[in-house]
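Students often ask what a 'structure token' actually looks like in practice. Rather than answer in the abstract, let us consider Thiamine-monophosphate kinase, a protein of 324 residues. Its sequence is given first.
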Amino acid sequence: MSGEFNLIDKYFVGRQSQRKDVLLAAGDDCALVKSPSNVAIAISTDTLVAGTHFLADANPSWVAHKALASNISDLSAMGATPAWVSFALTMPEPNEEWLAPFCDSFFRLADYFSLQLIGGDTTKGPLSLTLTVQGFVPEEKALRRSGAKVGDWIYVTGDLGDSKAGLDVILDNVNAHKQYAKVLEERHYLSSPRVLVGQALLNLASSAIDISDGLISDLGHIMTRSGVGASIDVDALPLSKELMGFTQEQSIAQQYALTSGEEYELCFTVPEYNKGSIESALSHTGTKITCIGQIRPIGTFELKKGDKVLDWQLNGYDHFKGKQ
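Now compare that with the structural description of the same chain:
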């Protein structure tokens, strides 16, 4: 890309948080980092492509937040502490009016989580972003998808469904009420990675996953990896007032909550013996948690409303089809 090194120097080098465990950061052929003892390194890579994960004319500061937050969310699902990030940017032409707000937002979120940029690349092509975030978690304590047991309780953080509603607003698929549209659009792009929650769950949860493809799909990953089933109480699903106002009908809002992708909330399971202490253990995080169901034997998956089993046919988000 023309002016690549000028862009790197102006917008990326020297702006990052300075961590003591980074021996050599961006500006050389490789970064050098020193990991603490007795930890495992958690690594997550995501690619966001214009037209698939965000519109090409989307607010660049929102795009930056979404790109970094989605990667940090993967670390939070394993209880990891964010440490380092590398970032590759492909764009059609150098565009400082786009890069300036993008980088301001990127480094604001990185600084909040004490996350240091340690390397990256820029090149010419269709607009896309690839990030690799690394962090650390105590050895043998990382949360996984594979630990759920029959009888465990299923929890989620925050409210669900807002991201899908926000996407509908962005794509103008639904004639949203104006008082809800901006809030929902922001919630699609400006998620809050649940890092503190993930860390607090290390000794409490039996499994965890972040909700990126929709609750049904992502809980399905826990079921598959753990060899279990699940029962969900749809009336327990946490719904925001904005989503309720947007959909105007509880059952529609509940279906949004079950299928909404790119929420970046956590879904986790808790053994019966930890259920009584889970809320107090997470009180310092300031994050709402809701028990929405229970793990059942393998082969069982049901959506329940009271004593009634619903026959809703729902799917999560499919990035290749680009729809929910």
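One point worth highlighting: The chain has two domains: 4-138, 153-309. Ask yourself how you might have guessed this from the sequence alone, and why that guess would often be unreliable.
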